[in-house]
Amino acid sequence: MKSTAATPSILRDLRSLKVVVIHPQDQDGDELLAQLQRIGCDVEVFWPRLDCLPANTGLVLMAVRPETLSMNFPWLGTSNSPPVIPVVTYENPITIEAVLQLNAFSTIPSPVRSFGLLTAIAVALTQFKASRMRDRYIDRLEQKQAKVRVIQQAKQIVMDTRGVSEEQAYQMLRAQAMLKREQIETVAGEIVKARETLSF
C-alpha cells in the first residue's frame, strides 16, 4: 500500500497496526489474513477462544458465529478495549444484537472480499478514535463540574461558620490554598470532608 502526502494518517498508520483476527481457518479467514498482510498489518489469528488480547492490539476482527456468541471475552467492554469489526455471515435478530453489543462502527460481510475491507478498517479506527476523544472530553467536563461543586460547598461552609460573603469565603479558600501550596479544590475537599465527619 503506497503512501502519499494526501493519504489520511489513519491509512499511513496501518503498517504499525496490531490486528487480532478471531475467525476459523476457512475461506473467509484465509482471505482476511491475506488482505491484512497485504495491507502490512501485524496479524495474529485465534479461534474460537481468546481470554487475553496480545499486547498493543489496536483492532479486532471477529467472526460473529454461534461459537463466539456463546463465549465470554473478558477484554471486551473495558476502558482499554480496541475497536471490534464483526465479520457477519447471517442477518438475523441474534446477529444484529451481537453486533450492537460490540459497539461496532463498521462490519465486514461474508463471504469476505478484498473490496471494502480497507474502508471498513479506516472507518472503524477513525470513529473509535473520535469516540474516545469525546469520552475523554466528557470525563474532563465531569471532573471540572465536580471540582466546582466541592468549591461551592466549601464556600457555603465558610460563609455559614465565619459569617462572611461568598467572595470573602472564596478569597479565604484561595489564601489557604496558597499557604499550603495546594489546589483550591484540594483545600475545599478537606473542608467538606471535615464537615461531613463532624456531622456524622
SSE arrangement:
Blueprint: H1 9-12, E1 18-22, H2 27-39, E2 42-46, E3 59-64, H3 66-69, E4 84-88, H4 93-101, E5 108-109, H5 117-162, H6 166-180, H7 184-199
Describe the protein in words.
The protein is of the alpha/beta class and 200 residues long. It has two domains: 9-115, 3-Layer(aba) Sandwich (Rossmann fold); 137-199, Orthogonal Bundle (Arc Repressor Mutant, subunit A), CATH 1.10.10.10. 54% of the residues lie in helices and 12% in strands. The chain has seven helices and five strands. It has helices at 9-12, 27-39, 66-69, 93-101, 117-162, 166-180, 184-199; strands spanning 18-22, 42-46, 59-64, 84-88, 108-109. A five-stranded parallel β-sheet has the order 2-1-3-4-5. Strand 3 (59-64), helix 3 (66-69) and strand 4 (84-88) form a beta-alpha-beta unit. Helix 5 (117-162) packs across helix 6 (166-180) and helix 5 (117-162) crosses helix 7 (184-199). It starts with 8 loop residues before the first helix and ends with a helix. 23% of the residues are buried.
Keywords:
alpha/beta; 200 residues; Arc Repressor Mutant, subunit A; 7 helices; 12% strand; Rossmann fold; 5 strands
Q: What is the CA-atom radius of gyration, in angstroms? A: 26 Å
Distance N terminus to C terminus?
66 Å
Detail the poorly predicted runs. Answer: none
H/E order of the elements? HEHEEHEHEHHH
Number of domains: 2
* Count of distinct strands: 5
What CATH architecture label of the largest domain applies? 3-Layer(aba) Sandwich
Strand percentage lies at 5-15%
CATH C-level category of the largest domain: Alpha Beta
Can you give the mean pLDDT?
87
Please state how the strands of the largest beta sheet are arranged side by side.
2-1-3-4-5
Q: Treating each run of at least 4 consecutive H or I residues as one helix, how many helices?
A: 7
> CATH homologous superfamily of the largest domain?
Response regulator
The CATH topology of the largest domain: Rossmann fold
Portion of residues within helices: 40-55%
Quick one: overall form? elongated
Oligomer state of the chains in this structure? single chain
How can the largest sheet be summarized? 5 strands, parallel
